[in-house]
Each structure stands twice: as structure tokens, then as C-alpha cells.
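Our consortium's second objective concerns turning raw sequence data into structural hypotheses that experimental partners can test. To show how far this objective has progressed, the report includes one record in full. It was chosen at random from the queue rather than selected for favorable results. The single chain below, 228 residues long, was entered without modification.
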Amino acid sequence: MKLAVVLLSGGLDSAVTLAIARREGFEAHALSFDYGQRHRIEIESARRVAASLGARAHRVALIDLRVFGGSALTADIEVPQGRSADEMSHGIPITYVPARNTIFLSYALAWAEVLKCSDIFLGVNAVDYSGYPDCRPEFLRAFEDLAALATRAGIDGARFEVRAPLLHLSKAEIIRKGTELGVDFALTHSCYDPSSNGGACGRCDSCQLRRKGFQEAGLVDRIRYATT
């Protein structure tokens, strides 16, 4: 069986990405991060999703991006609430974590080289991506070029591929795809600012994009929201 490393946050997009990797015949090695994020409850969601979708292995890398801060997810900065669609479509929001996907992909690359596999799956999206620069197609291609130069496997001729199957799908299309693949979205967590009992705030950018996606897909979101 083909091997792949799949970055798994515990959110909706990464769960669907893992399901796609499994459907394509990959033995998935899921990789999550405990990086000091405000919403670290997503790690438990990642564990549930990995087990539900049959990941061959699941590892949680412990790093601490709070040492740098600079984001509402890793510093004492308020998470934006109730932003309009127009506001979300302009600029880079304060929930952007500096260089996060570069760091995560570097860890995934290291594991892929150890596993002697060349495929890395990542659930980024260039449609509903909230302005994050490390979710763009040009970033993914640049990282592949870096991987070819920065690894022993690359020097020996291996070509790593960063697979982003959701890149050009809307949130509604992602949700429909996940439903077709049997993803249990009740296991996932998307909220940037959850309550103490794990309920989603319903008003951060991530919650709003998720709720809009389910509405457009004509499906019911079964997670708990603090607001209706």
C-alpha cells in the first residue's frame, strides 16, 4: 500500500482530506500539532477523526508557537467575532499564525522522508481561506521545490508532492465530499474561540465559514454552538 503523511488538525477540512487520502488507497500517517493554540481542544477531535477514518498511525508533535505570539490563536489577543463576509475577504486576519503551514509541512516532510514516502496531504483551501498566505497554490509549489533541495531523499532524486485536494472547492463542496466519503463531522472542531466546555462560539471567522458551508450544502451541522 502507498504511504502518505496527512496533516490533521481535527477540523472539517483536514478530516475530509484524510478521507480522500484513504479513498485513494493511501496508508495514512496522520500528524497533528499541540502548538499552544487557544483552541487546543481540536487535538482531541483529531484523535477521534484519525481513529474513525482508519489512519495507520497518528502522532501529535509538541511545539510551542506562543514563544513568538503574533496571532490571536497563540497570544493574548482577542479573536475577531461577527465579521461580515466582506470583512473576511480582505486582508490577513489576526488569527493568522506566522509561518504555521511552513512549520507544519516541514515536520510532515521529515516524517515522510523517514517513512520513505513522497506524498503529503494538506487540507488548505484557496476559496474560503480567510486570506492566509500559506494556503495559496504558489506556496505549495514553492514548498515542493524546497523539499527537493532540503532533503537527502530529494538529493537522491525523490520528488515530494504536497497534495491539496480541497484547494479549489467551496466549503459547501468540501462538506458534500466529506459526506459522500462517510466523514462524521460531529467529531470535528473548527472554532477558534471555544467555550470552556468545548462548545463552538459560532461567531469567529472559522465558525461562520463552517455554518455557511453547511447551510449552502443543505445539511445539518451536529456540533454544539454557544450561539444559534
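The partners drew two points from this record. The mean pLDDT is 94. The two ends are 44 Å apart (CA to CA). Both points have been shared with the crystallography group to help prioritize constructs.
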